[in-house]
Amino acid sequence: MPQTDTSPAAETNDHLPRHQAERYRRLLAAFERTYGPGPIRVFRAPGRVNLIGEHTDYNHGFVMPLALEQDVWVAVRARADARVRLANTEAAFPPATFTIGPDIPAAEPGHWSNYARGAAQRLAREHPSTLRGMDALVDGAAPWGIPRGSGLSSSSALTVVIALALAALNHLNYTPTRLAHLCHEAEWYTGTRGGIMDQFNALLARRGHALFLDTRPDPNGDYHFAYAPLPAQHEILLADSGVRHRNVGGEFNRRVAACRAAVALLRPHFPHITHLRDVQEQPWPRLAALLPEQTTPRALAERGLDFEAPPGVTADTVLKVRARARHVYTENRRVLAAVEAMRAGDAARLGALMTEAHRSARDDYEISLPELDALVESALAVPGVRGARLTGAGWGGSVVILAHTDAMPRLQRHLTQTFQARFGRRPPLTVCRPSHAAGEILPPA
Ligand code: GLA
Fold first, then answer.
1. Alpha helix ranges (H) inside 187-229
2. 240 CB within 6 A, ligand 1
3. 144-148, 166-170, 181-185: which range is least confident on average?
4. Active-site residue among 139, 198, 214, 364?
5. What is each CA distance from 133 to 42, 43, 82, 366, in whole angstroms?
6. Residue 178 contacts by C-beta under 8 Å, 6 or more apart in sequence?
7. Contact between residue 138 and residue 158 where contact means Cβ atoms under 8 Å apart
8. DSSP secondary-structure letter at 244?
9. What does the pLDDT read at residue 2?
């Protein structure tokens, strides 16, 4: 650590498997039908599954994601003006047009184009009045696309792929780290105050590995990260609960607010603190004694404490500070222990940490749901399963399971049967092979 940080376009997948070559040709044909003939470039960004380290990134803590094979592609052609015309291969996502600039008006909340607008606006703030626009056709359709709302970061992949394309068409030479940083800020455009994990992973993931990332930048703005191989003879299974939470933004920002409130409450005792990460070395009982079970922004203001409410959090929003801070504190320790376990090839230890992480997410961070808990508990009942937890922001989405290769068939059967018996539908299951970082896709031979 730190690792080499090469240009994002450096890792291209020019040896496209046959089905992807077909996808490429179809995308080009659809592009020409939409925008007419001419030169076309194609970029991709992968989804992510987080092995461990949930809700730690906006606290400057540790995470361990990996890139999915499922990804989002965009075919693009530069324009002479600053317009961006966006279309999507899926009819559910209607076309949109905007002009690149430092203050791009948003589409209605939830509109897919807001991720592209955020990316374009963030780049425009770095390069005022010089960016060219593009005609773009996005393809994230099943089966190769990232399932939406599954906690697999389809929205960050969209942000990243648009930023990557715009940067390439405008000859902007960003390192992946710098671009990840910009994309992370770009997503705040949509209102959610997430951290840098997803964008960083999309731009720096390595095939066959998990990415251990310290989300606190050093004084030069660099990040420390390392690649950890998955334990031999083990595989990762994703089980999708099928629950799509519609109001994640509001709940998410409440968790961010609780962490900021904990920082505000601890600052009189630890003057250097800016994020919860800063008290990671303290014994937990000392911190617990300083954190009330709950507070509100109004109560913090009355005590004269410095607190910035994220969007959607009001003066009387109840913030469960102690439990939320305990999750972040214990989760950071689990990620560090998980790296050690991976380096030692200790799948049992890694799995146990994942399961502990789930219980902490469920009980202290309160981001689980019955469907997610049921998938975790069913998985753990199968011999050869090392651990399981919800992955991503929570309130729906997927569960990530670490299991011995030999256990996979039985695990898949058991999950299907138990979930169907209780919830009346089959959970989509995906064996996950860690993929590589975002980049340009060269035309297939
Ligand atoms: C979302 C955010 C990430 C991270 C996770 C929770 O995916 O975009 O930055 O906070 O939730 O770990």
1. 197-204
2. no
3. 144-148
4. 198
5. 15, 16, 4, 42
6. 221
7. yes
8. -
9. 43
Please tell me the pTM assigned to this model.
0.95
Beta strands in 339-412 (DSSP E): 385-391, 398-404
The model's pLDDT over 212-240, given as tens digits with 9 standing for 90+, comes to 999 999 999 899 999 999 999 999 999 99
Q: What is the sign of the dihedral through the CA atoms of 228, 217, 157 and 333? A: positive
Q: Is the shortest distance between the CB of 55 and ligand 1 below 6 Å?
A: yes
Do 248 and 361 touch, CB atoms closer than 8 A?
A: no
Exposure string of 62-75, with b = 16+ CB inside 10 Å and e = fewer, is bbbbbbbbbbbbbb
Angstrom distances, CA of residue 138 to CA of 17, 75, 199:
20, 6, 18
Name the pairing type of β-strands 134-139 and 83-88. parallel
DSSP states along 3-67? PP---GGGS---S--HHHHHHHHHHHHHHHHHH-SS--EEEEEEEEEEEE--S-GGGT-EEEEEE
pLDDT band at 13 (very low <50, low <70, confident <90, very high): low
Burial of 209 (0-12, 13-18, 19+ CB in 10 A): middle
Taken in order of first residue, the domains within the chain and their CATH numbers are 11-229+435-441 (3.30.230.10)
5 catalytic residue (yes or no): no
